[in-house]
């Protein structure tokens, strides 16, 4: 899932900050050796932190229904993670780097979620909005200066870009078919079986409410259990 988010960011930045193939968008660590090899305007989106968005964690199972509303499968809810990118601009002159970083900020700010037009097929299939923040101060446990020290480079102006994306926990699993018939026996007051014949309850597709306001049965109220004597 991470590489799909990389591709979505690449499309947004290339379309807004680097039109007409005037530069590159890369995701490598911006070390001294890497910087020395740059010979074209470059936006570097370095993924430096991955953390779970604990506040969005859900419990229980999610029902997957067919066209008639019947539950056919269940799956665990996804876990959401924050992908934090250190976005920097690289050219031969500081003024040009500032212009490039400003263009990147201008094309990202209008979007509170990753735009649908930039999503690869795998992200589009999720049918979910992927929140994105730009330039929001990072958590106190992170320090941009410490990141640059770890990379062995000099401190540069940068934007903190965070995308929140779901990760599936496990594949879905099938559920047992719905109960469509049940047999009941009625006993007397003293516990001795009565003379009444066993009653069979059958599911009747498309039946409406029974007499006297009997409740509907089955998923989404489109079936009714009908009593039949044997």
UniProtKB/TrEMBL annotation:
<feature type="region of interest" description="Disordered">
    <location>
        <begin position="202"/>
        <end position="230"/>
    </location>
</feature>
<feature type="compositionally biased region" description="Basic residues">
    <location>
        <begin position="219"/>
        <end position="230"/>
    </location>
</feature>
<dbReference type="Pfam" id="PF14065">
    <property type="entry name" value="Pvc16_N"/>
</dbReference>
<feature type="domain" description="Pvc16 N-terminal">
    <location>
        <begin position="4"/>
        <end position="181"/>
    </location>
</feature>
<protein>
    <recommendedName>
        <fullName>Pvc16 N-terminal domain-containing protein</fullName>
    </recommendedName>
</protein>
<feature type="compositionally biased region" description="Gly residues">
    <location>
        <begin position="207"/>
        <end position="218"/>
    </location>
</feature>
<dbReference type="InterPro" id="IPR025351">
    <property type="entry name" value="Pvc16_N"/>
</dbReference>
């Amino acid at each position: 899932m991470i590489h799909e988010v990389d591709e979505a960011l690449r499309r947004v930045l290339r379309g807004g900050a680097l039109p007409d193939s005037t530069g590159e968008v890369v995701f490598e660590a911006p070390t001294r050796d890497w910087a020395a090899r740059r010979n074209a305007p470059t936006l570097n989106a370095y993924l430096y932190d991955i953390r779970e968005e604990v506040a969005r964690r859900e419990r229980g199972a999610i029902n997957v229904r067919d066209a008639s509303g019947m539950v056919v499968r269940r799956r665990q809810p996804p876990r959401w993670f924050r992908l934090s990118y250190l976005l920097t601009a690289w050219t031969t002159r500081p003024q040009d780097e500032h212009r490039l970083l400003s263009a990147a900020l201008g094309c990202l700010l209008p979007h509170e979620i990753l735009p649908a037009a930039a999503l690869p097929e795998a992200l589009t299939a999720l049918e979910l909005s992927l929140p994105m923040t730009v330039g929001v101060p990072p958590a106190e446990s992170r320090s941009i200066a410490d990141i640059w020290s770890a990379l062995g480079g000099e401190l540069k102006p940068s934007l903190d870009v965070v995308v929140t994306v779901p990760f599936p926990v496990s594949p879905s699993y099938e559920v047992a078919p719905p109960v469509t018939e049940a047999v009941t026996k009625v006993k007397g007051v003293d516990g001795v079986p009565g003379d009444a014949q066993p009653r069979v309850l059958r599911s009747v597709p498309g039946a409406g409410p029974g007499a006297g306001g009997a409740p509907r049965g089955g998923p989404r109220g489109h079936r009714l259990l009908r009593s039949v004597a044997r």
